[in-house]
Design brief:
The protein is of the alpha+beta class. It folds into two domains: 3-67 and 221-259, no CATH class; 74-217, no CATH class. The chain has two helices and 19 strands. Strands 5, 6, 9, 10, 14, 15, 16 and 17 form an eight-stranded antiparallel beta sheet that branches. Strands 11-12-13 form a three-stranded antiparallel beta sheet, with no helix packed on it. Strands 1-2 form a two-stranded antiparallel ribbon. β12 and β13 form a beta hairpin. α1 (3-29) runs antiparallel to α2. The chain is elongated. The protein starts with a helix and ends with a helix.
């Protein structure tokens, strides 16, 4: 391995551990974010030019992988429209641009027109009838005195006259490979070719799981683990920086000797 290769390898190590620290920082920042799935950093060796008898090391590459399939702990709340999922499913939501997305962040509240939205501004989608149909924004009538969400997603409310009325059914969705979903702002995910298409079904069927009302799913981030990883990232960064500095010094001496 030449000095130029060792310098390139060290630079890749510094870059990879910067990515590692970035992932840790994002996890720590979201330690209290409802439904957040902590990410891990995956390191992969990079090889340079190879022949039959030798190869040249070219460093390391790091990438973030969100733990989308990990279940967070469920905590109780006082709002019946706070929803958590016990299982593998996701809520179907629609963003401001009209695109369908998936989320585990179930802190839904009625807006001025009664439509349920979460803290990121995504609208909860559901079936207007109990037996399916087209997905539409889930709305609670203005003036309803109480709202009930069953484990299978059946949503009902009590009107001002004290009568119970059936409003909608909240479905759950999933994909074949949730770890490959595309994460976007607002703690939501988009299906893509690697994850497979989004399929929608009724809660309490298959592995989708059940819906728990007056509950929220906590972030899966363990703060102690992240602080330990931060130390490892710092050590890796410092040691790769030393290799980079040493390689640079040796190259300078080599050039000085050649020019002298």
């Amino acid at each position: 391995m030449s000095l130029f290769n060792s310098l390139q390898t060290a630079v890749s190590g510094v870059s990879a551990h910067s990515t590692y620290l970035d992932v840790i920082g994002t996890n720590i920042a979201n330690v209290n974010t409802t439904g957040y799935k902590g990410s891990t950093t995956q390191f992969a060796t990079m090889l340079g030019a190879q022949d039959l008898s030798n190869y040249h090391m070219a460093g390391v590459h790091a990438s973030a992988r969100p733990g989308v399939a990990n279940q967070g702990s469920i905590t109780s709340t006082t709002s019946t429209t706070d929803l958590a999922i016990s299982g593998n499913g996701f809520f179907v939501v629609k963003g401001p641009n009209g695109d369908s997305a998936m989320t585990r962040a179930g802190s839904f509240v009625p807006n001025a027109s009664g439509t349920l939205i979460n803290t990121a501004g995504y609208t909860l989608m559901g079936y207007s009838g109990q037996d399916g149909g087209a997905l539409a924004p889930v709305t609670v009538p203005i003036g309803a005195t109480s709202v009930t969400v069953a484990a299978d997603g059946a949503l009902s409310a009590t009107n001002a006259a004290g009568a119970s009325i059936s409003l909608a059914r909240i479905p759950l969705a999933n994909v074949i490979s949730p770890e490959n979903l595309t994460a976007v702002d607002g703690n939501v995910y988009l299906a893509n070719d690697d994850s497979g298409a989004m399929t929608v079904g009724t809660a309490k069927t298959g592995s989708l799981g059940s819906i728990e009302s007056s509950s929220l799913e906590s972030s899966t981030v363990d703060l102690a683990t992240q602080l330990t990883n931060m130390i490892k990232a710092q050590q890796g960064y410092e040691e790769n920086s030393k290799v980079m500095s040493t390689s640079s010094d040796m190259l300078s001496k080599l050039f000085d000797a050649a020019s002298g």
